[in-house]
């Protein structure tokens, strides 16, 4: 407690970002420290779990220390610690979990584990202080493409998800074959701005009528075949057009399904989350489609879309206030379900 | 002085508190590879057993490896963050040295000259080191003196090095009346899970009667011997800040090895050409 505000420290190490943040009353970001390892993993073309784990260990103390000092508080002021315990890379997760437990024990602070995906949704509470459930959530990230109904703070019902690649993964893979470096999502977004989205007719995969699931592997194959054909015919690949057309095929289906889900469950708001929620075209298209149906679209600013500790702190706050039992026996659960 | 020692580099995690007098209080996990889930409970138990409050701790020590990478990290992170939050210095202890410390009395009683902890790193690889028991002039106290570098050895290379050490001793002994057997009886005292993995290779490489295997009750890592080494280091003021406490993996990550060797698969290193 400081100045009458309940302070939560959030810790996140599920993939390649070592992050910690202090959040007041579950809503107000007082500090948000993110130490990214992207520069290190780029040499390998993707995240190397063993290296990620080693780097998290070297950085976690300073990241936590800076989160406290940036917020102008000390460990004694912290009322609750929240830490991501899954899903994610097991070796990476356990650094955050072990650090959180050591701090909770040393300073006598209650600790709750947070589902990383709940954290992504909670990022919106930090951005939109008046937002409350119920709403429909759309989580689009490197590992996830999910539509989730959120009837209450501590309830999440998964309605649909990807049957193969996640949206971010599809972006990253196509980016790689057209020569854009890891992570490719933001680079596709940028390249697409100078391209024609209708220049190549990539398919839109909707699956069975009414389905809220996704599949991007067929689209990925189609794009690879297209690139192969063009190269064999000796034609130069127009990177901007491929990026724009591929991106359009991905985000159109996502936007349609998110709006369909909100309508079906009578939700008046769609809340976006995850790294791909930063995609400028997805943001524009989903707003356009939702507006027609009188549905509002909320999204966090890009810094809260990627992995961060603040979203974990907010999710921890609401879990704790809704009766989640603190525990010092927390374990990492790499395959944690919704 | 109340030092908390953490050991998570082997199969069973443990925590000990040692007092200035050398009295040790310990808690060890009964479940294999339960380090993450169980560590704070073990630490709390050891602190309670010692009859102190965590605010009375003076140092945090950790066994920093070699051993299981994941295990090493759990112990080191726990120690680093506890030290940071409690404002205490850290002490770094080698898992191998602690394993040697654990069997020192047994090795001396068996008449061994060399204490050799061997950790199984699979595919004939080990992490190992070789120590001699050293006595203070009054023969009252024994302590360890490293005679071969702690590092990664192929089991065959380690055994060859030990054989040549023994051969040197034999040459020395041949000029004396003393029987060889008397001087070299059980010359080598092995400990660690390397015994479980490479027992047959050891048995077929070294002459019978020249080595002994540690009993199972002493063979594996335990925070108690980490604590004893930590106490000596604390008294000698060999302490670190929490940020200086680092794992001793003794091995690069596999991807890093391959990047350095230039054998990282092209598929993941370069954009794919089709
Ligand atoms: N502007 C963007 N357009 C498309 N994809 C993006 C954009 N920004 C980030 N991404 C993608 O988001 C993913 C990372 O998001 P993140 O939430 O950190 O994923 P995860 O935690 O599942 O790995 C990467 O696949 C990245 O390419
Ligand atoms: Mg994420």
Write up what this structure looks like.
The complex is a heterodimer of chains A (338) and B (274). Chain A is 44% helix and 19% strand. With 338 residues, chain A is of the alpha/beta class. In chain A, strand 2 (17-24) and strand 3 (28-36) form a beta hairpin. Chain B is an alpha/beta fold and 274 residues long. Chain B folds into two domains: 2-94 and 221-253, Nucleotidyltransferase, domain 5, CATH 3.30.420.40; 96-219, Nucleotidyltransferase, domain 5 (2-Layer Sandwich), CATH 3.30.420.40. Chain B has ten helices and ten strands. Chain B has helices at residues 35-49, 69-86, 95-109, 155-174, 180-184, 194-205, 216-219, 223-235, 254-261, 266-269, and strands at residues 2-7, 14-19, 24-28, 59-63, 90-93, 114-120, 125-135, 142-154, 188-191, 211-213. Chain B has a five-stranded mixed sheet, with helices on both faces. A five-stranded mixed sheet of chain B has the order 8-7-6-9-10. In chain B, a hairpin with a 6-residue loop joins strand 1 and strand 2. The longest helix of chain B has 20 residues, at 155-174. The complex binds adenosine-5'-diphosphate and magnesium ion (MG).
């Amino acid at each position: 407690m400081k100045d009458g505000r309940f302070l939560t420290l959030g810790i996140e190490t599920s993939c390649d970002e070592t992050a910690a943040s202090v959040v007041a009353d579950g809503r107000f970001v007082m500090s948000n420290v993110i130490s990214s390892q992207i520069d290190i993993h780029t040499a390998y073309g993707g995240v190397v779990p063993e290296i990620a784990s080693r780097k998290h260990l070297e950085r976690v103390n300073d990241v936590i220390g800076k989160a406290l000092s940036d917020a102008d508080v000390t460990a004694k002021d912290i009322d609750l610690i929240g830490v991501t315990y899954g899903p994610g890379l097991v070796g990476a997760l356990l650094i955050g979990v072990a650090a959180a437990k050591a701090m909770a024990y040393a300073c006598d602070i209650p600790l709750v584990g947070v589902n990383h995906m709940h954290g992504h949704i909670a990022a919106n509470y930090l951005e939109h202080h008046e937002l409350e459930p119920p709403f429909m959530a759309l989580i689009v990230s490197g590992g996830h493409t999910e539509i989730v109904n959120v009837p209450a703070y501590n309830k999440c019902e998964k309605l649909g998800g990807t049957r193969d690649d996640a949206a971010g993964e599809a972006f990253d893979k196509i980016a790689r074959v057209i020569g854009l470096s890891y992570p490719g999502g933001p680079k596709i977004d940028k390249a697409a701005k100078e391209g024609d989205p209708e220049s190549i007719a990539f398919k839109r995969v909707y699956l069975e009528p009414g389905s809220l699931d996704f599949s991007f592997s067929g689209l990925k194959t189609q794009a690879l075949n297209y690139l192969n054909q063009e190269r064999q015919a000796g034609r130069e690949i127009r990177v901007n057009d491929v990026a724009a057309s591929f991106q359009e095929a991905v985000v159109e289906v996502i936007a349609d399904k998110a709006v369909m889900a909100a309508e079906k469950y009578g939700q008046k708001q769609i809340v976006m989350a995850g790294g791909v929620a930063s995609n400028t075209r997805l943001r524009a298209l989903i707003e356009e489609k939702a507006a027609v149906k009188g549905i509002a679209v909320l999204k966090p600013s890009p810094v809260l879309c990627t992995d961060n500790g603040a979203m974990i702190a907010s999710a921890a706050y609401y879990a704790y206030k809704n009766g989640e039992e603190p525990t010092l026996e927390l374990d990492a659960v790499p395959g944690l379900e919704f | 002085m109340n030092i908390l020692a953490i050991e998570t580099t082997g199969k069973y995690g443990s925590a000990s508190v040692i007092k200035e007098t050398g009295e040790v209080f310990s808690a060890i996990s009964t479940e294999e590879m339960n380090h993450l889930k169980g560590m704070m409970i073990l630490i709390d138990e050891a602190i309670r057993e010692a009859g102190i409050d965590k605010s009375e701790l003076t140092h945090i020590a950790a066994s920093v490896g070699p051993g299981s990478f994941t295990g090493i990290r759990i112990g080191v992170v726990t120690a680093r963050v506890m030290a940071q939050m409690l404002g205490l210095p850290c002490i770094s202890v080698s898992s191998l040295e602690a394993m040697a410390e654990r069997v020192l009395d047994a090795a001396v009683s068996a008449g061994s000259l060399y204490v050799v902890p061997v950790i199984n790193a699979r595919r004939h690889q080990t992490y190992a080191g070789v120590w001699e028991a050293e006595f203070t002039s009054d023969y009252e106290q024994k302590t360890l003196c490293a005679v071969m570098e702690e590092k990664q050895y192929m089991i065959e290379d380690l055994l060859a090095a030990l054989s040549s050490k023994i051969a040197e001793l034999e040459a020395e002994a041949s000029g004396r009346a003393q029987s060889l057997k008397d001087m070299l009886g059980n010359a080598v005292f092995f400990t660690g899970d390397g015994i479980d993995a490479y027992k047959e290779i050891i048995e077929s490489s070294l002459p019978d009667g020249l080595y002994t295997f540690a009993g199972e009750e002493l063979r594996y890592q335990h925070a108690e011997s980490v604590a004893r080494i930590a106490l000596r280091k604390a008294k000698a003021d060999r302490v670190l800040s929490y940020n200086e406490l680092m794992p001793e993996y003794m091995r690069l990550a596999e991807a890093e090895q391959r990047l350095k060797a230039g054998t990282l698969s092209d598929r993941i290193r370069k954009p794919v050409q089709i």
